[in-house]
Amino acid sequence: MRASSLILQLTAAALGARRVVAHSLATAVCLCALGWAVAQAPPAQVGPGREPITPIPPAPVQDPRRLALGDRLFHDPRLSHDNTLSCNSCHDLATNGAEASRPKSKAGSGPDLNTPTVFNAALSFRLNWEGDVRTLEGHVEQTLRSPRRLGSSLDEALQKLRADKDIAKAFREAYGREMDGVGILAAVATYERSLLTPGSRFDLWLEGDANAMTPKELDGYRLFKSLGCISCHQGVNIGGNMYQRHGVFHPLGSPKPEIVRVPSLRNVAVTPPYFHDGSAATLFDAVKTMGHAQLDRMLTDDQTEAIVAFLKTLTGTYRGKPLVRANEPRPSGAPP
Ligand code: HEC
Ligand code: HEC
Fold first, then answer.
1. Which of 130, 242, 248, 294 is the most exposed place for a label (fewest CB within 10 A)?
2. What pLDDT is recorded for position 79?
């Protein structure tokens, strides 16, 4: 009975996707994959390896000296032109890896994009809202250069860091050569690959712990599949593996950019606001808008709440502690 219900869900997801196909070539590719799975290999049961989402893996084992150097650089304001901003200023690792207190990044002028979390970014197939960068190293280089981010350059950062004997020594020990730009980019990227958040309740459920989720949360997950959310939000990051138009049926936020990389829904409960322009303040709003804009469905409040309950099980842990929202008081009552 469980097997047949999964097939129904996959078929429903495929049907959901089929309605979108008319509007999007990218979905057609994804639909083929789902269609094939249904036609060729009906899954025998629901469970590990049978779901369209896989758990976040543990962080890869890496050279601790390179990791430590990357950690220092991630927190080093000398990476910015005026020595005021580090990566961590906009991607606060003590909370959610996204912006601490502002809905959008502050550097530069005019509207900018909502800051995505750096947690699990290493698992997405492209980086940034538009998915315009392929590698973490290339992304660090872009971030150094961008006037809206660090407003500096790799050369400028290198010059400042070379003058610091202590960090030059740490570099030599980590890479066995004098400090260079390639190594700076590599060290930050190495550190970013360690910023994974395994251990969410949903992942525990995927790994076989049937009690890790409540019936309401599981209802939400079933809806997520049967409505067709899964046709775009799937894989290890529940997103981050394809491009899509936003506002397929009805407009969603500001029209530009038209095509975006589908965002990951990992840790989504602790990373408000939502969408590329930060136009949805709550998860409830974001889910309702998604149903309408991407699937032409008016979700009921009950459906929306069940999906939100499911999305709340996607909050993982970093260094053993669950991620929290920016400015959220710590459970201990300590100041944030
Ligand atoms: C002034 C704020 C700011 C600073 C400083 C900053 N970022 Fe970002 N970061 C952003 C914004 C905004 C985006 C989205 C950019 C886009 O979509 O084009 C982003 C995107 C990213 C992404 C892509 C996430 C994804 O889901 O694709 C990663 C990874 C990242 N930043 C890492 C870093 C690192 C590493 C540094 C330091 C070298 C850094 N950021 C510095 C604001 C910032
Ligand atoms: C056709 C593909 C598609 C479908 C179907 C779809 N989404 Fe999305 N989803 C997107 C895209 C693209 C974005 C980014 C929109 C933007 O920012 O402009 C997004 C964004 C989101 C966000 C905000 C994420 C963030 O960090 O800002 C949530 C939450 C979300 N989707 C949930 C859902 C749910 C729940 C469903 C089903 C009811 C769904 N999506 C169906 C493509 C899709």
1. 130
2. 98
Confidence label for 332 from pLDDT (cuts 50, 70 and 90): low
Q: Per CATH, is 2-57+198-322 categorized as 3.90.550.10?
A: no
Q: Residue 233 C-alpha to ligand 2 middle, in angstroms?
A: 7
CA atoms within 13 A on the CB side of 75: 9
Other Cβ atoms within 10 Å of 166 Cβ, number: 8
Q: Computed from CA positions of residues 156, 162, 167, 169, in that sequence, does the dihedral angle turn out positive or negative?
A: positive
Q: Is the CB of 91 under 6 A from ligand 1?
A: yes
User: In angstroms, what is the span from residue 106 Cα to ligand 1's centroid?
Assistant: 12
What distance in Å separates the CA atoms of residue 171 and residue 66, rounded to the nearest whole number? 8
Question: 136 is written with which tokens?
Answer: 């973490």
Ligand 1 pocket check for 230: Cβ under 6 Å: no
Residue 19 pLDDT: 41
| Domain limits, the chain | 2-57+198-322, 64-193
pLDDT in tens, 167-211: 999 999 999 999 999 999 999 999 999 999 999 999 999 999 999
